[in-house]
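Hey all, sorry for the wall of text incoming. These are the two entities for the joint prediction.
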Amino acid sequence: MAYIAMATGFLLILIGFYGALTNRNLLRMIVAFTIADSGINIVIIAIGYMHGRTAPILDAVVPAAEALNRIIDPVPQALVLTAIVIGVGVTALMLAFAYKLYERKGTLDIAKFTELKW
Amino acid sequence: MIKRIIALALLIGVGLIFTTLMVTYEPDANLNLTARYYAEHTASDVGSANIVTAIVVTYRGLDTLGEVTVLFLASSIIGLVLSLGKKQNKTLRNLVPVGELLTTGNLYLAPIIMLLGVYVFVNGHLTPGGGFQGGAIIASSMLLLLLADPLKQFSHTLISLVESLSGFVYVALGVLGIVLAGSFLDNRILPLGHFGDLISAGAIPLIYSLIGLKVGAEFSSMLANLSEMEDL
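and here's what came out:
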């Protein structure tokens, strides 16, 4: 199970990288980065997964005394919680920059932005 | 063509690294040292049923403060970037009329989605949820409002008031932790209460609600800024 999730995550990272490297449209590149971002999150979550255990929430089913042998690693989940939120902020920032670039050049094709090319 | 081949070669390289990582990966049979500490001490020290919340809000509360700051920076930079060189005389956009289903559905759904967001962040210490998730749900109800009426103007004063006020109270609670309990953002400034109750785990529900409001306000201001751009 953890392997399926991890393989999916790695595959998503590769798809995202491929999209970001081969597309010239800025919006498509942003979408590709978002896909890679989700892939990385899935991989981190899959690393925290341990077979036969449950979510790190203590209740009547998982009392605090048994927590040690019943829950999965909570640290990757806390990390991913952070990563998702920052990912949204980064995506929104990329979209804002893409909009500004479109406003200036009238195109989203990255090959047309040659100011830094020598 | 040559660029595509280079990209593919690069991807095959990265893919090989990933495959090696996956083949050699051995899942842990037991919790590692850090996770063990959290599993053993959360219930008695922090009193939060959701261990992830205990880590995010209390054990690593300072990092969460940093995260909220990063989000605040992102939303203010978006506002700044989009307002640069903005044309003053706005031409009215010719928009496709919004469907009846969306306008009517919006009337019933938007308040309920907002309520769900509040529910999610108030119960952050008991259920899989919390301030960030709740804030995102609140912002999604704002998105629904924008979809139903694309020309809707949100009050930026209200959004920034909610945002700065909740941020300020968040930091003030953290400083109160130094004074009353011994460390920054310590949740034991309030009694821990009965484990598993809604009002328990000290200051965690309060802090996570503030984070929820702040994140909701930040996402809403991003949405409002992005929607107020002129038509492409």
